[in-house]
Amino acid sequence: xxxxxxxxxxxxxxxxxxxxxxxxxxxxxxxxxxxxxxxxxxxxxxxxxxxxxxxxxxxxxxxxxxxxxxxxxxxxxxxxxxxxxxxxxxxxxxxxxxxxxxxxxxxxxxxxxxxxxxxxxxxxxxxxxxxxxxxxxxxxxxxxxx
Length: 146
Prior knowledge:
The protein is of the alpha/beta class. The chain has a single domain (5-139), classed as Rossmann fold. Helices cover 25% and strands 16% of the residues. Strands 1-6-5-4-3-2 form a six-stranded mixed sheet.
């Protein structure tokens, strides 16, 4: 069973995260946790000092964390971006596409199911922050920003 999954080189951050409110009010933490409903844009002025951003998914149906990940990655955040909470195996691939590079689900995931999910499709359809060219851009190389 998979309790933690990381796609980063090196060790995953072990630093305890603080709330967004605590983080913006102090100067010594390098790990923060975004709860559902909090705005990731509050962290944009501090991206250079963050080593870990955890994004909490209180329910698998709550998709706000995907937006938080994309906002941070598009703004240039290069540190560890961890999905925590109610993370399901079928969410790992789209979460990776939005920029998540580590996962700590509430419930362990089946190893074989994770492996199948990660290798199910060779091509992707939407452009996102992970750098993979969508299949339509492969078919139409004349489109520059695919």
